[in-house]
Amino acid sequence: MTGTAPAAAPTRVVLADDQDLVRAGLRLMIDRAPGLTVVGDAANGHDAVRLAREARADVVLMDIRMPGLDGLAATRRIAADDGLAGVRVLILTTFEVDEYVFEALRSGASGFLGKGARPDTLIDAIRTVARGDALLSPAATRGLIARFLTLHDSEPVRASPSISTLTDRECEVTTLVADGMSNAEIAAQLMLSPLTVKTHVNHAMTKIGARDRAQLVVLAYQTGLARVPRPRP
């Protein structure tokens, strides 16, 4: 007799938002989605970090502006905790492109979503980050960072010893990722297979210490490996 494969465990989601009504609406949407379940909700960052650990969350849906410990600080704590290495943070924000979002990505978030997103978009986003993928499209990531750097042009580039551990090919691929290209586009330009490109991206993320593709792009710009062209006066 052929046994039936066990059903996959549902993705465990923690909600973090200081508005009760928002959390109630999110819970209703997420609990209705196949394969997802809300295992806790928090009104501040302290509780979000605690619940991420206690409820064994896979994804934390994190608001930025919360009392006590805000979403940025909570994201940094989750990203820095080795015991929460498997937890992904998806930022919910009113303004989809601002420096708070950049800071969230730099802090370890896997992506961001505007609060005006459709319910099906939200569900897809949770599933995307739960798989370990970055939610942001390459072009959206590049646009976000370009805007941030334009506003903070005087900030110095921070050198990183980890950059020197990248091979020439890994540097080349990382620069193209930061330039807004998908793996398929990079593969076509460098005459490689998409699988080989993905392998180079994964190696670069491991060496630099990026949790996912979005953070790899952030770190590439921060360390000066990638540069956003400036308009000439």
Task: Give a concise summary.
The protein has ten helices and five strands. It is of the alpha/beta class and 233 residues long.
- CATH H-level homologous superfamily name of the largest domain: Response regulator
Shape: globular
Q: Number of helix segments?
A: 10
> End-to-end span in angstroms?
74 Å
Please indicate the percent range of residues in DSSP E strands (runs of 2 or more).
5-15%
**Spans of 5+ residues with little confidence (pLDDT < 50)?**
none
**Main sheet makeup:** 5 strands, parallel
Helix/strand order, N-terminal first? EHEHEHEHEHHHHHH
CATH topology of the largest domain: Rossmann fold
Classify the oligomer: single chain
Structure commentary:
This protein has 233 residues and is an alpha/beta fold. The chain folds into two domains: 11-135, Rossmann fold (3-Layer(aba) Sandwich), CATH 3.40.50.2300; 145-222, Orthogonal Bundle (Arc Repressor Mutant, subunit A), CATH 1.10.10. Helix content is 48%, strand content 12%. The protein has helices at 20-32, 45-54, 71-80, 99-107, 119-130, 138-151, 168-178, 183-190, 194-208, 213-222, and strands spanning 11-16, 36-42, 59-63, 88-93, 111-114. It has a five-stranded parallel β-sheet, sandwiched between helices. Helix 4 (99-107) links the parallel strand 4 and strand 5 (111-114). The chain is globular, with a radius of gyration of 18 Å.
